[in-house]
From TrEMBL:
DNA mismatch repair proteins mutS family domain residues: 1112-1128
Species of provenance: Schizosaccharomyces octosporus (strain yFS286) (Fission yeast)
Biased composition (Low complexity): 40-53, 96-106
Basic and acidic residues: bias regions: 1-10, 130-147
Keyword Nuclease: no
Stated name of the protein: DNA mismatch repair protein
Subcellular location: Nucleus
UniProt GO BP: interstrand cross-link repair; maintenance of DNA repeat elements; meiotic mismatch repair; replication fork arrest
Amino acid sequence: MSKGRVEKTQSNEQNEPVKSKQRTLFGFFSKIPTPKKESPSSSIPLQKSSASPTAGGTGDAKRIPLQSQENELPIRVPDESSQNTFSPRPYSDPFSSPLSSNIPRSSPKRPLDSYDEGDTPKNVTGKLPRISDHMDNAVHSSPHDNDSDVSLDSPTKNKSQNFELDSSLQSDPQFLPSNKFALSSSTTHEDPEKKPNLQSGGRRAKKPVSYQESDEEDLEDVKGSRSNRRKKVVLDDDDFDEYVEPERENSPSDDESIPAKEEVPEDDLMDEENEDMDADDSNSPLAAPKPVNRSKSSKSMYESYRLGSNLASADLPSPRSASPSKTTASGIINREEKRRLRMEAFKKDNSDRYEWLLDVRDADKNRPGDPNYDPRTLYIPPSAWSSFKPFEKQFWEIKKNLMDTVVFFQKGKFYELYENDAAIGHQIFSLKLTDRVNMKMVGIPEASFDYWASQFVAKGFRIARVDQLETALGKEMKDRQRTQKEEKVVQRGLTQVLTSGTLVDEAMLTSDLSTYCMAIKENIRFDSDEPSFGICFIDTSTGGFQLCEFTDDIHRTKLDTLLTQTRPRELILEKSEVSQKSMKVIKYCVSSAAIWNFIKPSTEFWDKERVIREIISANYFEHGLEGTPKVLSRVLETKELASSAFGALVWYLRQLKMDKDMCSMGNFMEYDTSQHSTSLLMNGQTLKNLEIFSNSFDGGDKGTLFSLLCRCVTPFGKRLFHTWLCHPLRSPVAINARLDVIELIADNPSIRDTIWGFMHKLPDLERLISRVHAGRSKPSDFVRVLEGFQKISLAFQQLQSEFQDIAKGTLLSELIQNAPDMQAELQSWTRAFNWRKASEEGVFVPEPGFEAEYDQSQAYQTELKSELNELLEQYKKQLHCSSLNFKHVGKEVYQVEVPSDVKVPVNWCKMSGTKKANRYYNDDLRKKIRKLLEAEELHLSIMSRMQDKFYARFDGNYEKWLALIKCTASIDCFFSLSQAAAALGEPYCRPEIIDGDKGELIFEELRHPCINATAAATFVPNDVSLGGKTANMVVLTGPNMAGKSTLLRQVCVAVIMAQLGCWVPAKFARLTPMDSIHTRLGANDDIMSARSTFMVELSETKKIIEETGPKSLVILDELGRGTSTHDGHAIAYAVLHHLVSNLGCLGFFSTHYQSLCIDFIKYKQIRLMQMAAAVDEERRRVTFLYKLEDGICPKSYGMNVANMAGLPESVIDAAERKSEEMEATTKSFHKATDDIALVSDFFQLMRINEGKEPSSMANLPLMLDCIAGGN
């Protein structure tokens, strides 16, 4: 809020009358008459709310605090003699910020409902019920049910004062829904008979509050409307008065997501955070511990006390009678006066926007727009640091280096976002904004962090998590041993940074497939040169690094292929060092949602020498550089660019606090985009054209070959299958070995059932063991890991014992025999700790005798609890009351509950109570409870060390666990291929894989496997034969929409399936494994690269010509259609001739140039074929038969297609006449020409053999064949 706006608000408060619609306690609205203006001496000093009617208020309403007072008027108004005036905190309008001025205003959210002691909500799923669900809860109760004195409920951090009304108001006619009421500024305090009218500032979302819990007996004592009265607990803790849900059975665990519409509390004023947050409160006899992350704490019965209360001295929380002081004669609490003064000081100190936020600069003082501007950092002048309060200083020390990141800052049981981050949360996710000049804020509950973090990440934001690193009790215990001055604020630190490309939490990962973060290093002198690339990428969910280095062509074909295969979600590039051509290829290949990071050369994008120094200094591997994994060591020695890319990736992971965890796994592999010697090569263009991983419709996987074939049961099996499909096999021996396993599984249902039985419930072990390595696994997940490996070990034993004979000599038997035997190791874990408690309660409880330190700590706690029970027995005798017992009320545990009619010693302090019983503390009891809580705090640290010990022991066998996972993943892939084969439908067969120097393909009744079930029933199969005794190349003609492109694709897909080791959708299949598949399909321009459709065609054709060999399969669809007819025909002719005469590859060449077929009609290595169609010339109708047959299609039947499209008859007639004229001209031209294709071949052979003796002319038979006319 600007200074001018503040002044205007103050002016309005003094001069403008109150005009607003007002809502009664039950949610009805009524108009309020304009009050008469009175002198200041007779009016209640109020501060006008700045709430907008659409932002949660109903106008410029004035608010006063109310208290309940038994048997008296429920509203206490200060008398005229009061010298202390009370000015409620103004209601900040979240829409008054310039950042939110353009946001559509929505209806105000209703405040959260609440419950009395012990009143446990029944239908709670992560948030409290709305008031609309419990209208009888609309009236608040006093925080002191059993006190006759009236005192204001004044939580230190509540932005607006709540009405606190006695239950008698529910029966008072003045407060019935039909009554109109308002509080006029002329109301005086002298007339007790005159009931003041109330004026509410309108309905607005309130802080969720922390309510004390009680037992069911309390509910029996509370009758009528009082059963639903609310009780608010004021906690004077280190950060702010926390408002949290009570501990209850149905409350969600820390790991559960909270619905998106959950209400969150408003923040407190910054002066209170800084002045006395994290410090002992002078009004409380007990300093309080700071809240910590629940997920890292044990689930004992004292958890809520330890984690949320403010316990820091030797006493327990003060009794109710001691907390806030009673009202003065003026009706104002002393503490409220202190609060008012603080608020005024805060306004004075924060009336202007920080200058360094108005004139933004980076750490080097560069402004936005400067070429060297770094948006990640912020310059804060030294003078500003001296003016910061402790909390602000702590916040900006972290935030100044994370300006491009949304920072979630933990404060108690909430995570809060400030400044620009708050604006993002408010504008995009409609989180409630606390608007002020500096430090605007939105907040979310601690338990909902995972939900909201995933929402921000899904929108492309980078998320930083700043956690409290100590409990208040632990801090106080540690401070007692310190000699230096203790800090005022709780220690916090950056613990995690989340991005879409580096997620590791299983709950946030949306896909079982790998998600990659990739660093790319390019080396090129001029843009026209062939570039070299070093690339390193990682799947952080598994910790697997992959590195490669290669020299590419000027079209970046290999880079295109790599990006298409991996589809990285996040990129790390060297700033100003990537060429324009490479940038265009990267933008074309990666998703629009990918995150781009441009980092500085040398200082951040390390060179090889810097990488080696960092590996040594960071101690990523045992024994330093000598312990470096072999793959990485080889890369560092021989590949400078790949080493630099690895350095950039490590630097980036260090910013995310992940470098140590990822590198220390030692999971490094070299990645080959082509793997020429072992696999079928498919470049990026082929993967796109054949729709292997993504379809051409919406980029999803529906209808792709991957979705058809991948029927893996386990997530890690799916990731391995993706790799298999990127690199189908090339060796006949390896292909047949896979086919043998598929046939074995298909012929033996018992094997199939055994494999499915142990795999279908396995968790993602590959990702989970990486979490164990990082020490971030939950105990319940660790149990899932152990149970998963137990299933695998038992299944492998069963497969080996029951199917050893029939599986002998197969890959399946080899995998099982080579898998590490971990049964003994797993058996030892069953004796280490209680698996059931770890799984259900989320804590490690070691078996007796396994951890001596844990046993001693547990015994000490048991002893302290026994002492408490002995003390209770002593009190029973002392008070002559056998019904005494302990009650845990919220965080105030072990209160002695005494019947109301029993008198207690005067030194006992009442803490809480009901009509039937009161609860007390005394000094002896407090001391013993203190000992117990400190013992529990020490026990937590023991459990943390024990957990680390468990994970370290498990991680010692990381390589064996990973090997066992890979064996299981391979079996899962075999299972997937067998299932996919069975789903192909009849006919399907095992392909016959033969070896040979020349390529050969034979398919009988071949179908496209990706056709859906409905279309498959009417799909027309075709016989295909290439190479061997038939021609290598088929020139294919046919009408538009006759199925030419589908036929071309299905041949390529069948080859891929066969070389993958899968059965194919054909009656018979025989082939020699292909070295590569090249495709050029469709017609698209490339606007980003300023290339026309024809230029794109020729560029792709050039790549095919350069990479094609005798055992390549080439598919060219309608080459030459992007230019004129004559030029297109000429280029198509030249390319076809070169493929057949010089390269000798197999393939299909589809065209609409009938004259091209005539040019090669006598050519022996070309077979002319067409897609059959039945034509009705009179009615201009074409019936597509989708059958492949020999011959040349005489026409493309464009006129028939035009008629089907609905073109005017006159236009079609004119086009038909012109077509006949052009056909006649073309036929006469061909009659006058020779067989130029054969003549060209003859002279080409003559040039090759020029200067050689006739006896050495190896091409003489071909020359004679040309002379003979190809017959």
